[in-house]
Sequence to fold (347 residues):
Amino acid sequence: MIFDAVDFDAHEAVHFAHDAGTGLNAIIAIHSTHLGPAAGGCRWWTYVDDAAALTDALRLSRGMSYKNAMAGLPLGGGKGIIMKSNSAPKTDALLEAFGNVIESQGGRYVTAEDVGMSDRDMTVIARRTRHVTGLPVAGGAAGGNPGPSTAEGVFLGMRAAVAHKLGRAGFSGVRVAIQGLGSVGGALAEKLAVAGAVLTIADIDEARARAFATRLDAKFLPVAEIANVSADVFSPNALGAGLNAATIAGLNVAVVAGAANNQLATPEDGARIAARGILYAPDYVINAGGIINVAAEYLGQGDAAHVTAAIAKIEGRLADIFVEADRSGRPTDAVADAMARALIGRS
Ligand code: NAI
Fold:
C-alpha cells in the first residue's frame, strides 16, 4: 500500500506511532536526509481515514525536501502528522508522547509548528526531545512562531510575481484576494494593507475574516467565492491541494502566490495554470520563510537580522524561476522541482 502509493517518492522512512495512554496516532515521514536531518513541521488535523493522513505525510515531507533545498538550508525533508480525534485530545501528555516518538528517531527528524500547532505545543514536545524548533524565543533572536516569517517571504515572493507578470513595483493599488487568515494569511494581509494593496479576504472562521475586513478596510467574501473573484493576485493561505482543474478554470487573476503547502492537486495542475496565462509562485519556494527562521534557531545560526537577510533571498529566487520558465516554456512548478531534485541528488 505504501510503496505503491501515488505520492510515495522513495521516501527513506515512514513511521507510524501509537501511544495507548493518550490515544496518539501519529505519522513521521522522512523523505530525504541527503542535505541533513529531515526537518518539517507537525500538523494536527482531522483526516477522513489513515490513507488520507498518509498521503498528506508523503506529500508534505517531499515538499519539505524541496523547500529546504531551495532555501539553501543544510536540512533534508520530513513531516509529522498527529491525527486529531475526540478520543485523543491535544493534551500535554499526548504532545509528550509525540516528543518520545521524535526522540526515538535519534535526530533524523526535526519538528516545528504547522497547522494546528503552536509554539507553546513545541515547548511541551521539547520536554522529551531536543529535535524540535519553533520554540518561543527572546526578542531579536532567530526562531519562534514561523508564521510571521512565512508571511514575510510570501509578501516578497508575491512582489516578485507582481513585478514579473504585471510590471508593477510594489503593491500600491494591486488587488489581492486572500484565502485563509490564520497565522500566515493574517500577517500577510496586514503587510499588504500597509503596502497599499486592495484586499478581498475570506476565512471559514467568518467572525475572524469580518474582524480583519473591518480593521484593514478589506472586502469580506464567503469562502466559496474567494477563488473566483476578479483580482490581480489570488493568495491561498488555507490548506493545500486547492488548485485543481475546476478551480483553475474559475480563477480570475494574473498571479497565484500564497503560503499553503501542496497547492497543486495533481502534477498536471501547474501546466493548467500556465496554460491559462497565470503566473504561479511555487508553494515551497515562496513559503520558506518560516523554515528559514526555525532552522536558524535549531542550527544556532544567528539572530533575527540573519533570518531577515535569508528570507529576502526568496524574492530573487522566484524571479529566477519565472525567467527560466519563460525561457524554457516550462511551468514554474516544473522548473522549481527540477532545481530542487538536483539539489537533493535525485533525477
Ligand atoms: P492556520 O491554521 O494558522 O490558518 C489557517 C487559516 O485558514 C485559518 O484561519 C482557517 O480558519 C482558514 N481556513 C481553513 N480552511 C479554509 C477554507 N477552505 N477557506 C478559507 N479559509 C480557510 O495555518 P497557517 O500556519 O497560517 O498556515 C496556512 C497554510 O500555510 C497551510 O497550508 C500551511 O501548511 C502553510 N504554511 C504555513 C507555514 C507557517 O509558518 N505557519 C509555513 C509554510 C507553509
